[in-house]
């Protein structure tokens, strides 16, 4: 498969009054052409920062790339000049944000906002841009786009505004579309519509999508592959099936266990104890160990490397080391694993695949 | 880490450990009250801290300055009139050496008039010591500003508080009155008030206060309205708290910050108005001195004795800058919206 | 919107009525007779003069006549400038004041906006500190102190510009305009800086960046308009500041404007002129604030289309 974007050992820090916050501490992943990669994790895990650093949208005065590279079209995005970056943003890589209520300019008609990237990146006349704009708005499901392009954002509902933001992002047929929690701020019914729209569009325009969310239900719905982030690192990455039915990292177990389920009549919904690590002073070793009931001595001393589970599945936990004791995941996880061919619980399969 | 290294990790490292989950939840930062937090933030604001020291210095000078050099601010020694500044020590450096202009030429006026005393900031046309008068004037200006600000706070908080807290008809009537009053330009009402009252300290304070409270009352009312409907107030009311407790325990502490900030901006406004009124001749009458009257006197002789204007001009400017910077600092420190 | 304008007009009328009434009765309680300068006149002459100015009649009648004339736009006759109506007096002095005020307003706000933008775009750099410092000086130093210092250095010491008066064309207006402009400049610089910083941190600016917009487009196409709209609300106080400033600045530079006349009419107890000018200033400021509020509704699409805030 063709790799369209490669992130390698990315490290990024914020300089704040309190000191250096190590928001990303060595993140690596690839994005294949045409796929949807979901990045999941709780607030502060670094998922938004990772994607904003791909777009270089973080404030230059307070953020700093410490290490690593972001390869796109043979260029390292971390090293491009501002004007080179401006040619990529909106044209090659575009982005959808969390809150449609605030992500449109309140004093600019929406037509002008959709046309802006077209006029900027493509050498077309205003009339042609307007045509494209109307087509885009129709594609994302805005009724009567010809008349509505003169209206201002406050005259649209939240769902419609998110559709407009999507139209802006698609204006120049980008190779990569980054969606930063695009449905979090919307009503549940609207969420489903927006997700359908995004899947639809992906089929039509064949773009790769990075989808950031903390909602595992959404992940199951849209993603091909999933990366789980915790404490500024990717702790597990695999296909949707692998992550949902054969998870290896205790944090992924926690995430999945805390997802309400219709089938399992659990009395109490599981909650991961504790709070995310303070990245001002990141813990030594495995950042999740302090909150994990599966912690090993070595977790307190050394950060685990990525262990290979399968060709597409990797997890950063010492539990996958050959010397590690065999532990049983939580009950709900075992139930899930029973259905996954290749997991050690599937038809009395013995041992892990590590 | 390479594969071989991974293999060599000793097995005992892989023992399971139990972690006290409370460790993961411990709070690493000490908890700070609102005021401690505000003070920490204010302390980081260098401009505000420097301004506080400067302001303190000016207040101390306003209190003790008039007694420092042994001259009396109201004593007129006509023989000593119009002397330029002369300060012991500095005179040898070619500044503040008593040299002034006379008929277009530079002469040492002290030698010419045979004056042995030092007038640090010079004298005015009546031979009064300007150093003493400057600090007396500063004292009066500060007094006017503080009293006017205090009146503004008392009336403004009461009016706005009553209007906002009781709401309904009371609020309606009180706000209609304010809406009409706010249309009247402050300048106009201040000048009119001063014309009908006998000139003096009280007149100026009343004139400045007469519309000054309106801004404060509107802010307080808006804040009261905002907090009055919030859950913590409703909860307290549900638990049987009376008006007194709700105002004292819940509303006042929440609007205290904004009252303080607004007061810090009222004071320089009052200083400005006093000086302004004195400058156009409506303020204090001689022989009393305020920064405004001193600037007015100084302006008249500016061409030949610029120092006469310069000293009070510098003092009033520094005072205003200090108050504004402290106000800015307090606003940043107390307004959680601006929190970084 | 119509309802809102109607309500505002009623309030404006009420306020003006109140000011006119208050002015009239305050004038009556003033110490010193309005015709103090006619002291040399004998009893009969004085009666003639009093009759001429209508001050022999009972107070309520005077008030009624005054209000009736006012409704016709007649501000009365000056006590000092014999036979001259206050209307003529004001008309003859409007031009210099208007020129100074307009220049100060335009110059002050434009420079202020640019400084504020510069400070916000280059936050925490020397540019930011510099323009913030300038803005603090501007709000802090009283206009008359600034005017006096300008006059001393630029005119008296360096002889670059006229010391005062209104007889050297545009040159005469430069120094007083600068002195008056400091307030608006500082106010708008501070205001725009705060607004810009808030706007620049908003999501739609991030989206604009994500579209590939460059720094210039971000600042001028996206951020400036959104930061400018609320600036309209401070134009009222700015105008009031300029009127206040004009009283002293015109005095300092001896400019034959309305402010200078107001101050001298106070000195000479010229009641009719004081009343007339008071009403003129009040009406001016009330109308400016009204226009500003309307303008705010017009330029902000959110208010324009939701039909006014009243």
Structural class designation of chain B: mainly alpha
| Biggest pleated sheet of chain C | none
CATH superfamily of the largest domain in chain C: MetI-like
Largest contact between chains: B-C, 37 and 41 residues
Percent strand of chain C: under 5%
What count of helical segments of chain C does DSSP give?
13
Average pLDDT over all residues of chain B: 79
- The first-to-last residue Cα distance of chain C is 8 Å
If you compute it from the alpha carbons, what radius of gyration of chain C comes out, rounded to the nearest whole angstrom? Answer: 24 Å
Question: How would you concisely characterize the structure shown here?
Answer:
The complex is a heterotrimer of chains A (354), B (340) and C (310). With 354 residues, chain A is of the alpha/beta class.
Account of the 3D structure:
The complex is a heterotrimer of chains A (354), B (340) and C (310). Chain A has 11 helices and 12 strands. By secondary structure, chain A is an alpha/beta fold. Chain A has an 8-stranded mixed beta sheet, with helices on both faces. A 4-stranded antiparallel beta sheet of chain A has the order 2-1-4-5, with helices on one face. In chain A, helix 4 crosses helix 6. Chain B has 340 residues and is mainly alpha-helical. Chain B has 13 helices and 2 strands. Chain B has helices at 3-7, 21-25, 34-44, 46-64, 109-113, 130-166, 168-183, 186-196, 201-228, 231-238, 243-279, 291-300, 306-334; strands at residues 99-102, 105-108. In chain B, a hairpin with a 2-residue loop joins strand 1 (99-102) and strand 2. In chain B, helix 4 (46-64) packs across helix 13 and helix 6 (130-166) runs parallel beside helix 9 (201-228). Chain C is mostly helical. The N and C termini of chain C lie close together (8 Å). Chains in contact: A-B, A-C, B-C. The interface between A and B is medium-sized, with 26 and 20 residues.
């Amino acid at each position: 498969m063709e790799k369209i974007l490669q992130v390698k050992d990315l490290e990024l820090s914020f300089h704040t009054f309190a000191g250096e916050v190590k928001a990303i501490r060595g993140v690596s992943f690839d994005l294949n052409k045409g796929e949807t990669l979901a990045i999941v994790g709780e607030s502060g895990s670094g998922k938004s920062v990772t994607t904003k650093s791909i777009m270089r949208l973080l404030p230059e005065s307070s953020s700093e790339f410490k290490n690593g590279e972001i390869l796109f079209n043979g260029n390292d995005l971390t090293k491009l000049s501002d004007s080179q970056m401006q040619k990529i943003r909106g044209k090659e890589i575009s982005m959808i944000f969390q809150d449609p209520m605030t992500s449109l300019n309140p004093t600019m008609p929406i037509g002008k906002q959709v046309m802006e990237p077209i006029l900027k990146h493509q050498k077309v006349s205003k009339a042609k841009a307007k045509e494209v704009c109307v087509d885009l708005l129709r594609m994302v499901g805005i009724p009567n786009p010809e008349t509505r392009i003169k209206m201002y954002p406050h005259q649209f509902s939240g769902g419609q505004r998110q559709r407009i933001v999507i139209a802006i992002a698609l204006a120049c047929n980008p190779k990569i579309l980054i969606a930063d929690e695009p449905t979090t701020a919307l009503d549940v019914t609207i969420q489903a519509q927006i997700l359908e729209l995004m899947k639809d569009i992906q089929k039509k325009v064949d773009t790769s999508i990075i989808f950031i969310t903390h909602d595992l239900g959404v992940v199951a719905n849209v993603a091909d592959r999933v990366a789980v982030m915790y404490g500024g690192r990717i702790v597990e990455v695999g296909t949707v099936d692998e992550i949902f039915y054969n998870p290896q990292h205790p944090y992924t177990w926690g995430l999945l266990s805390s997802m309400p389920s219709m089938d399992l009549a659990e009395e109490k919904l599981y909650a991961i104890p504790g709070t995310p690590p303070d990245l001002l002073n990141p813990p030594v070793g495995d950042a999740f160990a302090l909150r994990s009931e599966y912690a090993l001595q070595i977790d307190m001393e050394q950060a685990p490397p990525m262990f290979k589970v399968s060709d597409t599945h990797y997890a950063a936990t010492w539990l996958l080391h050959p010397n590690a004791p065999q532990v049983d995941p939580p009950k709900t996880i075992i139930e899930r694993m029973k259905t996954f061919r290749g997991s050690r619980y599937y038809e009395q399969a013995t041992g892990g695949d590590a | 880490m390479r594969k071989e290294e991974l293999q060599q990790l000793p097995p005992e490292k892989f023992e399971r450990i139990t972690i006290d989950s409370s460790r993961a939840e411990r709070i690493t930062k000490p908890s700070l009250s609102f005021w401690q937090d505000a003070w920490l933030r204010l302390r980081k604001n260098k401009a505000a801290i420097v301004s506080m020291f400067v302001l303190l210095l000016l207040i101390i000078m306003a209190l003790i300055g008039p007694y420092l050099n042994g001259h009396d601010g109201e004593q007129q020694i006509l023989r000593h009139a119009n002397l330029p500044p002369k300060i012991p020590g500095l005179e040898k450096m070619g500044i503040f050496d008593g040299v002034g202009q006379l008929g277009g030429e530079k002469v040492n006026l002290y030698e010419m008039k045979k004056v042995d005393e030092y007038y640090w900031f010079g004298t005015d046309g009546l031979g009064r010591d300007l150093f003493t008068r400057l600090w007396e004037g500063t004292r009066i200006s500060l007094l006017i500003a503080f009293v006017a600000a205090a009146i503004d706070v008392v009336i403004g908080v009461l009016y706005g508080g009553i209007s906002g807290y009781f709401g309904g008809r009371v609020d309606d009537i009180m706000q209609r009155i304010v809406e009409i009053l706010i249309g009247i330009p402050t300048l106009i009402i201040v000048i009119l008030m001063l014309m009908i009252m006998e000139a003096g300290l009280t007149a100026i304070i009343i004139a400045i206060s007469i519309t000054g409270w309106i801004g404060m009352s509107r802010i307080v009312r808006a804040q009261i309205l905002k907090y009055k409907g919030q859950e913590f107030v409703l909860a307290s009311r549900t638990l049987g708290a009376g008006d007194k407790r709700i105002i004292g325990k819940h509303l006042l502490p929440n609007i205290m910050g904004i009252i303080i900030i607004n007061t810090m901006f009222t004071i320089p406004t009052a200083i400005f108005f006093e000086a302004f009124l004195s400058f156009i001749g409506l303020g204090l009458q001689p022989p009393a001195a305020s920064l405004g009257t001193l600037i007015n006197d100084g302006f008249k002789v500016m061409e030949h004795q610029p120092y006469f204007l310069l000293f009070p001009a510098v003092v009033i400017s520094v005072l205003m800058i200090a108050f504004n910077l402290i106000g800015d600092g307090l606003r940043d420190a107390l307004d959680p919206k601006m929190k970084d | 919107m119509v309802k809102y304008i109607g309500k505002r007009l009623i309030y404006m009328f009420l306020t003006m009525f109140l000011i006119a009434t208050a002015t009239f009765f305050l004038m009556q309680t003033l110490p010193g007779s309005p015709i103090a300068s006619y002291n040399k006149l004998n009893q009969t002459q004085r009666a003639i003069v009093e009759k001429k100015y209508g001050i022999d009649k009972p107070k309520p009648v005077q008030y009624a006549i005054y209000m009736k004339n006012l409704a016709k736009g007649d501000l009365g006759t000056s006590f000092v400038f014999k036979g001259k109506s206050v209307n003529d007096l004001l008309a003859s002095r409007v031009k210099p004041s208007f020129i100074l005020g307009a220049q100060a307003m335009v110059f002050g706000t434009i420079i202020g906006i640019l400084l504020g933008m510069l400070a916000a775009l280059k936050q925490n750099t020397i540019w930011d500190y510099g323009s913030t410092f300038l803005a603090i000086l501007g709000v802090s130093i009283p206009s008359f102190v600034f005017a006096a210092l300008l006059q001393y250095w630029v005119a008296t010491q360096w002889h670059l510009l006229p010391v005062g008066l209104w007889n050297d064309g545009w040159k005469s207006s430069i120094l007083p305009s600068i002195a008056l402009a400091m307030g608006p400049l500082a106010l708008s610089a501070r205001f725009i800086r705060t607004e810009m910083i808030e706007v620049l941190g908003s999501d739609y600016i991030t989206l604009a960046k994500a579209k590939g917009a460059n720094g210039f487009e971000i600042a001028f196409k996206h951020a400036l308009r959104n930061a400018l709209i609320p600036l309209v609300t401070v134009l009222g106080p700015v105008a009031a500041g300029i009127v206040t400033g004009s009283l002293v600045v015109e005095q300092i530079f001896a400019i034959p404007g309305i402010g200078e006349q107001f101050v001298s009419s106070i000195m000479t107890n010229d009641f009719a002129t004081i009343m007339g000018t008071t009403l003129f200033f009040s009406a001016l400021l009330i109308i400016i604030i009204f226009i500003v509020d309307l303008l705010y509704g017009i330029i902000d699409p959110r208010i324009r289309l939701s039909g006014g805030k009243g």
